[in-house]
Amino acid sequence: MLTDREIISTLEMLQSEHLDVRTVTLGISLLDCASHDLSKLKNKIRTRITHFAEKLVPVCDQIGQKYGIPVVNKRIAVSPVAVVGAALTSSQLVDVAQTLNAVAEMVNVDFIGGFSALVEKGMARGDRALIEAIPHALTATERLCASVNVASTRAGINMDAVLLMGKTIKKAAEMTAAQDGIACAKLCVFANIPEDIPFMAGAYLGIGEADAVINVGVSGPGVVKKAIDRALESNPDLDLGQISELIKKTAYKVTRIGELIGREVADSLKIRFGVVDLSLAPTPNVGDSVGEIFQSLGLLSIGVPGTTAALALLNDAVKKGGAFASSRVGGLSGAFIPVSEDLNISEAARQGHLCLEKLEAITSVCSVGLDMVALPGETSAETIAGIIADEMAIGVINHKTTATRLIPVPGKKAGESAHFGGLLGQSTIVAVNNATGSNRFITHGGIIPAPIHSLTN
Which pLDDT tens digit goes with each residue over 138-156? Predict the structure, then answer.
């Protein structure tokens, strides 16, 4: 139960600090829908998703109104379609993608994730078919999201898959050139992908999960910023250890709110409650920015010297506070740094404080990786694959999740702006070294072996 003081503090967070439950994501297993018959598969998918999800949105709205806590996004994540549709061709998988999109519209969720493949150790026929289908599927749909796991600490980095994803991203961008390559904004490439992510575009339901599960993504960058501002205003001499404690306590409160909503939604739908993802997920709105937290901590901007240390402090404190508040913490949990989705981070890129190399450096301590990064349209598939490989290496060696959501914007150059709209925001296109050059290292292919510390048995 919340104490009176916690309730008053929470009300203030809701009224002026952009506290919300960022997403309630319903995971649905489609494994028993698998069929070589496309028509049967599509009918099974429609029936199964509708059965579990038809009441998701009204229940979330009802519980949000009951507590005065908005549930901003309602989403669905399904089993990896590369497994469910392993017997199908790429064109048939595009048809499956359209079916998923239509069902998402029918039950009125914002996004549906799980057009996914797990290829860290090699690619099966179904995996290749799905990856080939991704550009067409994301172009033909609005609510579908895709993800591909190309690396893990236990398996190493599948460089054949990395190069293939570089080419896939280029094609997806070209097919949506009129919208600044927006298809790529719905595609994540992962190392060590968790099975219970509620946030898009990476969400899917892992093979080891139940038939249906509710996962919650809470967010509160504005809450954390305000807490730091208030504390330093009353005591400017606080040291970083004390500030870390403050962030922990704030994350604790935010997590308890998320678990309260998530468990009640799960009980109402008679579905198992899964995890709370603690990630600080920003939006393009003023006051709802992770980037602003760095300024509250005393930095000129995210990207200047000190950024990596500040992010390490923030990420660690958020995880410690959330872990104390809930026994079911999962997903990614930490701080997102999506360039286009955070107004402050986008501005830092525009002013030159934040470059691609610094972004890569700070992903060694953040929750995810190179997220919503707009690149010059001329960037080659090999160069994109090189950027992906670098990010995968950070995840593999450090035994953590990393990902890329890269958008080569057709017809635009570094310094220009890309506009994606809504939650996806807008971003300054960042410069890329050797953008159009060849990359013989990448084209060697094969598997970069797993690190020695993967041998833990």
Answer: 999 999 999 999 999 999 9
Contacts of 424 (CB under 8 A, 6+ apart): 182, 185, 340, 341, 372
Furthest CA-CA distance within the chain: 68
Cα 103 to the chain's mean position, in Å? 22
Q: What is the DSSP secondary-structure string of 286-318? A: TT--SHHHHHHTT-SSTTSTTHHHHHHHHHHHH
Question: Backbone phi, then psi, for 406, in 5-degree steps?
Answer: -105, 140
Give the pLDDT confidence of 223-239 residue by residue, as tens digits: 888 889 888 988 999 99
The predicted model scores a pTM of 0.91
Enter the tokens of residue 264.
């009640």
What is the spatial distance between Cα 386 and Cα 436, in angstroms, rounded to a whole number? 12
Domains and CATH numbers, the chain: 1-457 (3.20.70.20)
| Distance (Å, whole) CA 421 – CA 215 | 26
40 in helix, strand or coil? helix
The number of beta carbons lying within 10 Å of the beta carbon of residue 62 is 14
Q: Are 334 and 318 in contact (CB under 8 A)?
A: yes
